[in-house]
Specification:
- By secondary structure, this protein is α/β, with parallel strands linked by helices.
- It has two domains: 306 residues, Alkaline Phosphatase, subunit A (3-Layer(aba) Sandwich); 106 residues, Arylsulfatase, C-terminal domain (2-Layer Sandwich).
- A hairpin with a 2-residue loop joins strand 7 and strand 8.
- It is globular.
Length: 512
């Protein structure tokens, strides 16, 4: 994006925000294991998600939005810090045995907003450190009610009974704590407890909005659903006609509607940015208790797009153009710099990987209106350069391109693939798979992962989103270009596949 266009967009954002409140409220609803194809507005069903769909109808639905990694802790660290997880030493999905946590030296979105005068609250799943001093209250949040990690990290079998084989690793889990602040207030020990989580989280979210309506606030609602074990209240149980997964989808949709209703009832809806997204794709080994990827390849726990491309909807009344579809490549790392810009908060002191896409949210670019701005500076990318030459040194809305690359990391820090534009180069490596020899379970019980050895392959995601047509032989120059880009990431962030140590990696916190 040109310097001029960027400054115009930000100035507009500031002018529009100051008309009501210099700092808009921010609500991020982060689902757990919700696939790209799970909301009805992304192709889901046969259940209904009218509240989520309404967000899309009043805002922007992003179609190329990615989590930074296809696993819980890593993805959430990216959302909170704006960094690739490997940059900050984070990987996997940590539990009570974790020997690392998010380093308190990293600046979280909550800390940046709190320092800018926001009241900050998290309701739901944290998963970035399971004990003090690594809980939310030590990372910028004023309030916390929720679980320290995933709701399946408990000592119970898939039928709800305690594991009988006490030597099995899952049988050794301690009681699953529901935490308020820094203290355990309840133990989650039954399916009935799981059934209550969505309602409990929603009620606390509504309370937070009510109590903070007279000041700018940041609410991070991190639902435990639709992660297994699925839980749903009696109000929705058996009501969707689409099985338990459908029931859960309709309850979390209700929760979204309740948040919007509360914002309106408390007179702050018009000045609130709502972000709806997911931490990664669906856990497909659970069969009918897992969601869908809308045809994208594989799911959670892989570096295929079914694992990382997730739904993302952003609504900001009076700013985002209604019923807009945005096809630009963006990630959950980009939320931090974007929200910090709009909130007039400081950006992190240390280097991050997120990019600011706030211009998409203020009606200046990516909207239905075909506005044109003079380009008085050098283009942001090759894509912009082509547009500017075509339009005689002007930049159209469509040429704003804040992100053109994405590095697909998985495992501890293996660089599995690289994307530039719509080209994706997959590197030779071992991978988990949901295909043969994997098995798929049903009705709470999982199947088993499979393992495969993958060759290098090149895919054009614009015409092959399912990643099943390797075209590396037809486009050797594209392969070379993407390999060079990958080397840049390897030097900065490392790569376990090539035994490269990154020069810009910062350590996670070490636990005793």
């Amino acid at each position: 994006m040109s310097v001029f266009l960027f400054s115009v967009a930000i100035a507009t954002a500031q002018k529009k925000a100051s008309a009501k409140n210099d700092r808009p409220n921010i609500v991020i609803i982060n689902m757990d294991d919700m696939g790209y194809g799970d909301p009805v507005c992304y192709g889901g069903g046969p259940y209904q998600t009218p509240q989520i769909d309404a967000l899309a109808a009043h805002g922007i639905r992003f179609t190329n939005f990615y989590s930074a990694q296809a696993v819980c802790t890593a993805s959430r660290s990216a959302l909170m810090t704006g960094c690739y997880p490997t940059r900050i030493g984070i990987s996997g999905a940590i539990d009570h045995n974790a020997k690392f946590a998010l380093n308190p030296n990293e600046e979280t979105l909550a800390e940046l907003l709190k320092n800018a005068g926001y009241k900050t609250g998290i309701v739901g799943k944290w998963h970035l450190g399971h004990k003090e001093p690594y809980l939310p209250l030590q990372n910028g949040f004023d309030e916390f009610l929720g679980l320290p990690y995933s709701n399946d990290m408990w000592a119970y079998d898939y039928n709800g009974e305690r594991w009988k084989d006490t030597s099995f690793w899952r049988a050794k889990y301690p009681p699953l704590p529901l935490i308020e602040g820094n203290k355990t207030i309840k133990i989650i020990s039954t399916f009935d407890d799981q059934d209550s989580l969505t309602t409990l989280y929603t009620q606390r979210a509504l309370s937070f909005i009510e109590r903070n309506k007279k000041q700018p606030f940041f609410l991070y609602l991190a639902h435990s659903m639709v992660h297994v074990p699925l839980g749903v209240s009696n109000r929705f149980k058996g009501k969707s006609g689409a099985g338990m997964f459908g029931d859960v989808m309709e309850e979390v949709d209700w929760s979204v509607g309740e948040v919007v209703r509360s914002l309106k009832a408390n007179g702050v809806y018009e000045n609130t940015i709502i972000v709806f997204t997911s931490d990664n794709g669906p856990w497909l080994t659970f069969g009918n208790h897992a969601g869908n990827t809308a045809g994208l390849r594989e799911g959670k726990g892989t570096a295929w797009d079914g694992g990382l491309r997730v739904p993302c909807i952003i609504s900001w009344p009076g700013h985002t153009s209604a019923a807009t579809i945005n096809n630009h490549l963006l990630t959950n790392m980009d939320i931090l710099p974007t929200m910090a810009t709009i909130a007039h908060a400081a950006q992190p002191v240390k280097k991050i990987d997120g990019v600011d896409f706030s211009a998409f949210l203020v009606g200046e670019v990516g909207s239905k209106n075909d506005q044109v701005h003079k380009n008085k500076a050098s283009p942001h990318s090759a894509h912009d350069s082509q547009n500017s030459s075509t339009n005689k040194n002007t930049t159209t809305l469509k040429s704003f391109n804040p992100r053109d690359e994405f590095a697909y990391y998985y495992d501890k820090n293996n660089l599995k693939a690289i994307r530039k534009g719509y080209w994706k180069l997959v590197f030779a490596a071992s991978s988990q798979t949901y295909g043969p020899p994997a098995t798929i379970g049903a009705d709470r019980y999982p199947g088993n992962w499979g393992g495969v050895e993958l060759p290098m392959a090149l895919y054009n995601l614009a015409i092959d989103p399912g990643e099943d047509r390797d075209v590396k032989e037809q486009y050797p120059k594209i392969v070379t270009e993407l390999q060079q880009i990958a080397d840049k990431y390897r030097q900065a962030l490392g790569d376990g596949l090539t035994n490269t140590e990154g020069k810009e990696v910062r350590p996670a916190a070490k636990l005793d």
